[in-house]
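Hi R.,

Here's the chain you asked about this morning:
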Amino acid sequence: MDSSGLGTVGPYELLVQLAVGGMAEVFIARRARAAAVEGAGGGSGEGAEIEREPLVAVKRIRADLRYESVYAAMLFDEAGIASRVASPNFVPVLDCGLGEGGAPYIAMELVVGVTLKHLTRPPELIGVGDALDLIAQAAEGLHAAHEARDSSGELLQVIHRDISPSNVLVGVDGRASICDLGLAYALRRTTRTKTGTVKGKLSYLSPEQAHARPLDRRSDVFSLGVVAWEVLAGRRLFVGSSMLSILHAVLGREVPPLSREREGVGQAVTAAVARALERDRDARWPTAADFARALRDAAEREGHAASRGAIGARVTEILPVPLKPLAPSYAPGGPLVTPEIIAALRSMHVAGVVGERDSSGMLAPRRPSQG
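And here is the predicted structure, written out as tokens:
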């Protein structure tokens, strides 16, 4: 392997860094055995077969936190929960383990795309039909998480607790996927939140989260309702100058009807989103699947057509730099390994062209380092 490389984690060769967060860092990676065959001069035969494997995203605990057991437990909890979710609209975990020196990691499908927050950044609004389709897809992925079961068939009672535009990925194929179960609750989770502790981004909390009360899946439905309102309206819903003012907004601020916020949005769409945003959870959509169906029915009734091709083209246009070489080779399950892609990613690493975490958790382009 090139001495300028990032090394390996478990069976994966790290190619370029995508992001660094509060607990972990994320890389584009491939199976290290593919690199070994390449180094041995295998350009056909066995090497060609290995090169058909997809690239993956590897998430590992940051070096300064690597030997604190609670972070490893949190990462493995995330992997264990996500491995039980089966949906094309939920980013799957493919593998997990301990790397060299006991560093915990998980390997996930690499989504070549951007977050919904990045895609819907003002002033450009996406079409009403496209917005409804993306939120409905996210709701279907969320429902799959809520319906996840253990090996004995018992419901895991998953609650995401951190639904926001930053945790919905949109790929170059126009597919929306829920990601990041780092804060999720589940019945079999080994790490627990202390009683009275609030988890999640304040502006997307449900009222019961804001009160630190017991939650069920309807809490996530409210959070996704906030996302839906914002994507359609083109502005934030619950904002404030302090944590306390944001919580007051979540608990009591009037939610303007979407029909007053966006031209072309009718009563069917307005009512579907408004029900998701009921502060009385008994009045909300009982499941995320019900919310998805309501959005699709409302889109059909009001004549809002969606174009995943148009969404995919927009995503491709705004991809972070490290992901741009992967767009042409995208395939279900992740972009396929090719010598050209490997060379491009290694060149980016050497040049210091990486993604970094912005305030939303989005991958943002960064200028190459000097020297």
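One quick note: Confidence is low (pLDDT under 50) at residues 43-50, 192-196, 358-371.

Cheers,
M.
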